[in-house]
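Follow-up to my post from last week.
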Amino acid sequence: MITVSIDAMGGDHGPAVIVPGAAKSLERHPELRFIFFGQEDKVVPILERHPRLNDASKFVHCDVSVRMDDKPSQALRQGRWKSSMWKAIEAVKSGEADVCVSAGNTGALMAMSKFCLRTMADIERPAIAAIWPTLRGESIVLDVGATIGADAQQLVDFSVMGAAMARALIEVKQPTVGLLNVGVEEIKGQEEVREAGRLLRQSNLTTLDYHGFVEGDDLGQGTVDVVVAEGFSGNIALKTAEGTAKQIAEYLRAAMGRTMMARLGYLLARGAFSQLRDKMDPRKVNGGVFLGLNGIVIKSHGGTDAEGFAAAIDVGYDMVRNQLLVKIETDLKYFHGRRANGKEPALEVSEQSG
Amino acid sequence: MITVSIDAMGGDHGPAVIVPGAAKSLERHPELRFIFFGQEDKVVPILERHPRLNDASKFVHCDVSVRMDDKPSQALRQGRWKSSMWKAIEAVKSGEADVCVSAGNTGALMAMSKFCLRTMADIERPAIAAIWPTLRGESIVLDVGATIGADAQQLVDFSVMGAAMARALIEVKQPTVGLLNVGVEEIKGQEEVREAGRLLRQSNLTTLDYHGFVEGDDLGQGTVDVVVAEGFSGNIALKTAEGTAKQIAEYLRAAMGRTMMARLGYLLARGAFSQLRDKMDPRKVNGGVFLGLNGIVIKSHGGTDAEGFAAAIDVGYDMVRNQLLVKIETDLKYFHGRRANGKEPALEVSEQSG
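User reply:
Got it. Predicted complex:
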């Protein structure tokens, strides 16, 4: 049994999308149990329309909901202790739930998650990891916007956490990790990225295989299993890729509607087009994972539909079943422990540069 | 008459692509004249196969060529004063040519251009501006990798220069300018970007219309005419968009070949597909413009074909014909002049933050 706490009021469509999404995920994973937090009159009627889900769920009423445009500070001030978002996170802290899923606003969800769950012992800053569809399958990209800027040590921590997530999600033993940069040569890029590269190369971690620098066009190719960036450039890469995919879909739609022949061709090839749509479907890879906190929180796209929200729950399910937190804690302890013992190359480097 | 100096040895394919590319551009713009710099035995035989181009061209032999994998420092050491790349840039400095076009390696071309042409009086750092295909037409995005990091004043200078280029290239009177950020609210993002936003908002420039922050997905939408970023995130955005386009083209190709019906549909719709290919064709928007130097240098993609190289020459032609340098100098003088007179809001802000 895996229990998911759900902020039923989050997202652009609220419970109308979230409850049916949970029902879909339950069909795939019958061992799931749910705790829904939200406004009773809005959530319960929809829940009652899904008897199987209703049987697998608890409901907790909350008066307050965080709005999609609330600033993080505002959300904390007005929603701490009592909003559906806060309560859903708190259920993970108390152990009632194994994972929290919300389609609410990212800034508020991160602020509340940090406040409620706190960062892990060795971690200064959490990261948001996205699942990125590639020509080879899927990669993990982090940080896509939890915090702006990261020093070399934080980039290394992101690498360790991202690799743990890759082992939990795509089940590779020693995931390849690349640092996002503007060139592949060792002399290129921001100083933090170059130093992180040196640290990773010297660390000889057994839990990841450090590949070197990767560039923006390696993301879609799936050159590595895990791509690490600080939050500003990671977020820009993510949004740029989403925007480019939308742009090309728009070109394709316009081109296919322009002439009779094109429309006929489209009809004949519609199986192929639906495969393509499938490949490009952002709902399939919905679910950003907050890494570095004492608990698992999954952020669903705010504008997604029931299928997309179900995918975010599926990600949470995989993370719990494959023991993401234990993996991260073990890897970080191993890494930071070695550093504390003075065996760790990070010390040499910081002495050199200090 | 507009004279283009050409590094005939640059790019993955050298003169075999560059000379036919120039011939194509000459067909479109008969008033062009060319000076080719390169190895005589490699360039002249190809030039002689294009009689009309040959008549419109001068050739200058150079023993040394910069290699595609030379580091900038290496290229400067070995190629200064004598390589085909240097000589092509120098022709702009001496006034023999109006613009230099090279498909050689970006780092070397920028290093030599800076060394030979120097930056404009008010400019600390040059930028590379890319032409970005959007759903609304074309936008200009800079800096896509000339230098890493930029302070607020440099981002404002990029905005002024990018707007001048937009007026030269897409011929809008008061181009809209956006700063690339991780959110559209004023409180979001890197401090440099936020301060640049404040400066632009207060400056009331008549040569550009400051729109505010834009995100990665605004690039493909064409939300603004000019998108300004520092070189690290700008480069990552550019490469990520290129990679995503390649990835989707690969999905499409695979999907269309999978079944008989899909192949038949593809045949019927091939007009539409060729339109789509056209829209996605990176050769059509080939030509990064170096901004902020005392001369115009255009960087073509190294791997492009003759059509792509011709497009890069076309960009250079437009920049000269529409007086890019005069536009930039006037705008910068206006902006920096106001600042020097103490009327400029930049001073107030730096006092506040200092």
